[in-house]
Amino acid sequence: MKSKLPLLVLLVLPSMSVCAQVASHAPTALKQAPAQASPDKPVARVNGVVLTESDLVREEYAIFPYARQHGGDLPKELEPQIRSGALKMIVFEELVYQEALRRKMIIPPARMQRAQADFRKQFATPDEFNAFLASDFHGSPQLLNEKIRRSLLIERLLKVEVEDKSVILPLELRAFYDKNPSRFEHPETYTFQTISILPPSNATPQQLKEGRARADRDLQQARAAKTAMQFGMLAEKVSDDDYRVVLGQHKPVPVDQLAPPVLAALKTMKPGQITNLIQLDQAFTIVRLNQHAPTGKTPFLQVRTQLQKELHEKKRNQLRAVFDASLRQTATVQEM
């Protein structure tokens, strides 16, 4: 099997970042309870209302849906975090639901009918729907409708207290951009394609000699490529690194992450030009420069859409947290 490891180690200087996050989402979907859940086992009480193991596991699957494809098991290293997040979420949703009842909020009949129809579309056949109704709601359409209404009430109150208040106005967006200039500055980068000739591990002198001869042949073919697509098609055919599956294309790489021989070559080139063979340890690489971006600041119009999403999500999460705290002030919550 071909490997990109030598290229990652030698062509681009190594770096690492780790990020784990449990995303927030809409009220828990109505899905069939997992078989391993204990339906009546209490996990929390919210103002006397019991939340069960089935509620909790459904929410765990909403946070980490891939668990359904692995026998219901969560990744061991993430299980405590996912379970804690799921428990907080189902408690929060119950608090929101109780607050919606206290405010005497209602769901219009037409909205309820649409939700019922949308829910039925999740099932391929009437028999599949009836099996779900029997297993999770004792065959009672009324109990199911109450659950759907509960979800809609949660959604409606969250719209009032969170969604409608988390809108980011154009003036707010521009003000954030102007007050955080360093956030939108970018380093000098190079965007390029590569063809790599990687020797086998513990290569013999003869294998290294053959690798050099092959690299010389590949270089001649690469120089005959007139476009990025032609170079990429050659990379797909002859390169040993895994970038061959994307036509040898690399995302923009900051200069401080490039190996010195590669950076030295790129500094002398114009877009569209191809390097000579660059030797990195016992490997060879051929680089086609596609773009050089000097240090600068990304224009507001280029970041506006993504920044809008980011600030909206941040504000939404803050408002949810504030709303959760306000509901808990007068509530009795017992986690088990």
Features:
336 residues; alpha+beta; four-stranded antiparallel sheet; three-stranded antiparallel sheet; 11 helices; 49% helix; disordered N terminus
How would you describe the overall organization of this protein?
This protein is an alpha+beta fold. It has helices at 5-10, 53-63, 79-102, 109-120, 126-137, 141-163, 170-179, 205-224, 228-238, 260-266, 300-329; strands at 42-46, 49-52, 185-186, 189-197, 253-254, 278-280, 283-293, 296-297, 333-335. The chain starts with a helix and ends with a strand. Strands 5-4-7-6 form a four-stranded antiparallel β-sheet, with helices on both faces. 49% of the residues lie in helices and 12% in strands.
Task: Briefly characterize the structure.
With 336 residues, this protein is an alpha+beta fold.
Mean pLDDT: 88
Q: Helical proportion?
A: 40-55%
Number of helices: 11
Q: DSSP strand (E) fraction?
A: 5-15%
Uncertain runs are 1-9, 15-26
Distance between the termini: 50 Å
Task: Output the radius of gyration.
Answer: 28 Å
Report on the biggest sheet. Answer: 4 strands, antiparallel
| String of helices and strands | HEEHHHHHHEEHHEHEEEHE
What sort of overall outline do the alpha carbons produce when their principal axes are compared? Answer: elongated
Structural class by helix and strand composition: alpha+beta
Which strand order does the major sheet show?
A: 5-4-7-6
- Beta strands, count: 9
Element layout with pairings:
Layout: H1 5-10, E1 42-46, E2 49-52, H2 53-63, H3 79-102, H4 109-120, H5 126-137, H6 141-163, H7 170-179, E3 185-186, E4 189-197, H8 205-224, H9 228-238, E5 253-254, H10 260-266, E6 278-280, E7 283-293, E8 296-297, H11 300-329, E9 333-335
Antiparallel strand pairs: 1-2, 1-9, 3-8, 4-5, 4-7, 6-7
Helix pairs in contact: 2-3, 3-6, 6-11, 8-9
